[in-house]
Write a structure and sequence with these properties.
Order of helices and strands of chain A: HHHHEEHHHHHHHHHHH
CATH superfamily of chain A: Farnesyl Diphosphate Synthase
Number of strands of chain A: 2
Shape of chain A: globular
Largest interface: A-B, 49 and 49 residues
Low-confidence stretches of chain A: none
Largest sheet of chain A: 2 strands, antiparallel
Strand content of chain A: under 5%
Structural class of chain A: mainly alpha
Strand order of the largest sheet of chain A: 1-2
Mean pLDDT of chain A: 93
Oligomer: homodimer
Chain lengths: 279, 279
């Protein structure tokens, strides 16, 4: 995959050290690369060459990976297995895992700053990246998730957690793609909403798969069950959760198909592929 | 101080949450604000109004504060006291402290992206920020510091740790100030070297004060002694360390005074103030 090659090159350009090795260990562990792919699909749908989005594709995957490393820490979800391998703090140590996360987050912005696109677009995209990943976005979601573990009791409250924790970083690639394709603010906002719907679909699917698959099949430990977490499945039941997931995917696809000036077929077929994933 | 007001406003604009409260707790605890002040002194020395550097001044202090929060964590230096108050993970909890650091680091880039300066300068300054704070800069220094705790045995090796751990984030404000003042690459590199010299002076001073002052005087716990850390004082002795510190401060000042087109008196008097600090 294009993104894997790019990430590998980026990591080779980073000073070799224990923290660099830990960053590389987690970053090149072969994730699904959903966020970079969504970004590439967005610029392609607008008729641009995917190369224009390379730096932001890398930045998104670095931010996603940092969030996984920190989420897995003992003080957070305390997970041992990720992408079929020991989590970063298990493979290295806790201090190195904290630093690897910090390093990837910072390196994401460094990488984004290397983009050769229109300067105004670059700054706007970096702002979107920080906004969606930070304390008004993903970090807020992670905070709500930790805090509300004990007292999320209804679907609406859980939906809010997912909105920030998962939705924001799935909206970011769609928004960034639209900015790179020189779309107006209103269109960028529309893509944000589409990303939120897609993020919710994705998270409900994750919850649903967590109860149906073994850790070996998923390649990660099922900490939700161990931590007695409230999920869409525990709140709605397996049947309803599955129906909701399909509704949300359909809604996302419908939103994409009615986006003006956007050739949607390739992105839609990619989203159907995600919908039918087994891990 | 100007920077305190700006940071307060920035935190008010952030979504209220437990993580936002933890970010604010650590950010508004009244540090020395050395990095923002160095940035303001740089732009002023070039004849610019300090307002042009506000967003980057905030970003630098946010990055500095995030690094302190993560350094203080149990898996790192395990410190209880910072700026005269319980450390972030003591006041809140470990998970919240990890997220508060992540939040501040991300919010730093968000804040930087709001700058209204020349777009090319903004992107260059964000690149410097990420470079100096990331896995080729401060994060590398922190990694070397953790890793080499057991086997740094000579001054040269320790100097390398300080170069990355302290020097990089003291060079960043000088470099960013020079970019905002439209200086050429060579001049920006000169400022980087000046920052490295100043960072080393500052760190040796820190080591020296750590053995002379009580935690109550310093407002932070003396984890170096507890962790049996090798410092410039344990390697060189108190007398030599103090002489070295004064030499390094003098060298920094001499470098600043011979910078072309730069009115140095205000910055030099600020640096002498740092040199004479007691905590």
């Amino acid at each position: 995959m294009r993104i894997d090659e790019l990430l590998k090159t980026r990591m080779e350009e980073c000073t070799n050290s224990r923290v660099q090795q830990a960053m590389e260990y987690s970053l090149l562990a072969g994730g699904k690369r959903i966020r970079p792919t969504l970004l590439y699909e967005t610029v392609k749908g607008y008729g641009l060459n995917e190369a224009c989005a390379d730096e932001f594709a890398c930045a998104l995957e670095m931010i996603h990976t940092y969030s996984l490393i920190h989420d897995d820490l003992p003080a957070m979800d305390n997970d041992d297995l990720r992408r079929g391998r020991p989590t970063c703090h298990k493979q290295f140590d806790e201090a190195t895992a904290i630093l690897a996360g910090d390093g990837l987050l910072t390196y994401a912005f460094k990488t984004a700053s290397l983009s050769h696109q229109n300067l105004s677009h670059v700054v706007t995209c970096m702002k979107i990246l920080a906004d969606m990943a930070g304390p008004d976005g993903m970090v807020l979601g992670q905070c709500l998730d930790m805090q509300e573990e004990a007292h999320v009791t209804d679907w609406q409250a859980l939906r809010t957690v997912h909105h920030f924790k998962t939705g924001c970083l799935l909206s970011a690639p769609l928004m960034i793609g639209a900015v790179l394709a020189d779309q107006d603010e209103h269109t960028v906002e529309q893509w944000k909403e589409t990303g939120m719907t897609l993020g919710l679909a994705f998270q409900v699917q994750d919850d649903w798969m967590d109860v149906r698959e073994t850790p070996e099949q998923l390649g990660k430990s099922n900490s939700d069950a161990r931590n007695e977490k409230v999920t869409s499945v525990t709140l709605l039941g397996e049947e309803k959760a599955r129906a909701l997931m399909n509704d949300l995917y359909e809604e996302s696809i419908a939103r994409i198909e009615r986006t003006g000036g956007f050739e949607s077929s390739s992105m839609v077929s990619y989203i159907k592929q995600i919908q039918n994933r087994t891990k």
